């Protein structure tokens, strides 16, 4: 018995669900779960279907679905295989540690192929868990040279996604284009109110009552890519800067891991600068 996840996005029109389910039934596929959403302003249809059955040739099913969908439809047929990822880091360990521990115990839903850092701070920790660590120094290099070295390492591995686990270098438009739709980042939700260094100190000095974090896809516009998930937590006057930082790191870990879980389970569609997320 095969397990199959089907992702479809296309212009909306009457009868789409009927057409899709008819094709699946003709291929003796049993629908376990089906979620759909219509973006009314843009007249766009999205669906995620989990199904089971005996399917020898996925390409034939894909072509049959396309024949019964509007022009410009996009169809992905995904077997139940784990995603492969590379992680980019700087010095902060909290997000990397969460990912590597889950990877170690096979609960991540993906395989970490390597970690790349522009400092050596996290090398020992990474290698203790059996993951290759590559140090790429950014000092005295222009962005093009630095990113060329990054890509040389990344392209040694057949990765589905790049995860920026508190990687603090701004990536160029050319780099982002090479991995379009494959780079996931995490940042504090103080942007744009608290841009720059020490956002938690700025938040503390401003006396904020809520802090948060955002996981998003990376685009050319810094920290403005399609948002995958967000969370907040309440703070009060009892929180000093250290407590604010600690609370911020906890929520950053939570948000990043939730976003990765959604992506690894193929629950996220990108639609312009927004996402459709089937939880």
Tell me about this structure.
The protein is of the alpha/beta class and 279 residues long. The protein has two domains: 2-78, 2-Layer Sandwich (Alpha-Beta Plaits); 83-277, 3-Layer(aba) Sandwich (Rossmann fold). The protein is built from eight helices and 13 strands. It has helices at residues 16-26, 58-67, 94-104, 123-128, 143-154, 173-178, 199-206, 241-264, and strands spanning 2-11, 30-39, 44-53, 74-79, 83-89, 110-117, 133-135, 161-164, 183-188, 210-217, 227-234, 268-271, 274-277. The strands form three sheets. A seven-stranded mixed β-sheet has the order 7-6-5-8-9-10-11, with helices on both faces. It has a four-stranded antiparallel β-sheet with strand order 2-3-1-4, covered by helices on one side. It has a two-stranded antiparallel ribbon with strand order 12-13. Helix 6 links the parallel strand 8 and strand 9. Helix 3 (94-104) crosses helix 8 and helix 7 crosses helix 8. The radius of gyration is 21 Å and the shape is globular. 29% of the residues are buried. It catalyses: (6R)-10-formyltetrahydrofolate + H2O = (6S)-5,6,7,8-tetrahydrofolate + formate + H(+).
């Amino acid at each position: 018995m095969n397990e199959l996840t089907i992702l479809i996005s296309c212009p909306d029109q009457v009868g789409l669900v009927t057409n899709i389910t008819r094709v699946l039934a003709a291929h003796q596929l049993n629908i376990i779960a089906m979620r759909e959403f219509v973006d009314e302003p843009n007249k766009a249809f999205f669906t995620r279907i989990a199904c089971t059955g005996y399917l020898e040739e996925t390409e034939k099913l894909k072509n049959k679905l396309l024949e019964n969908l509007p022009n410009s439809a996009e169809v992905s047929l995904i077997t139940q295989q784990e995603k492969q990822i590379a992680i980019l880091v700087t010095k902060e360990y909290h997000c990397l540690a969460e990912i590597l521990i889950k990877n170690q115990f096979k609960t991540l839903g993906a395989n970490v192929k390597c970690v790349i850092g522009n400092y050596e701070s996290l090398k020992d920790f990474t290698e203790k868990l059996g993951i290759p660590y590559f140090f790429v120094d950014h000092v005295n290099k222009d962005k093009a040279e630095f990113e060329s070295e990054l890509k040389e390492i990344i392209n040694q591995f057949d990765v589905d996604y790049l995860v920026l686990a508190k990687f603090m270098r701004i990536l160029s438009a050319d780099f982002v284009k090479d991995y379009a739709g494959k780079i996931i980042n995490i940042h504090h939700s103080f942007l744009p109110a608290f841009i720059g260094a020490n956002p938690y100190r700025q938040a503390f000095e401003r006396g904020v009552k809520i802090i948060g974090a955002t996981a998003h896809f990376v685009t050319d516009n810094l920290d403005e890519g399609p948002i995958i998930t967000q969370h907040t937590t309440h703070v009060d006057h009892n929180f000093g800067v250290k407590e604010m930082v600690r609370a911020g790191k906890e929520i950053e870990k939570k948000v990043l891991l939730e976003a990765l879980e959604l992506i690894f389970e193929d629950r996220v569609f990108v639609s312009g600068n927004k996402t459709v997320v089937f939880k």
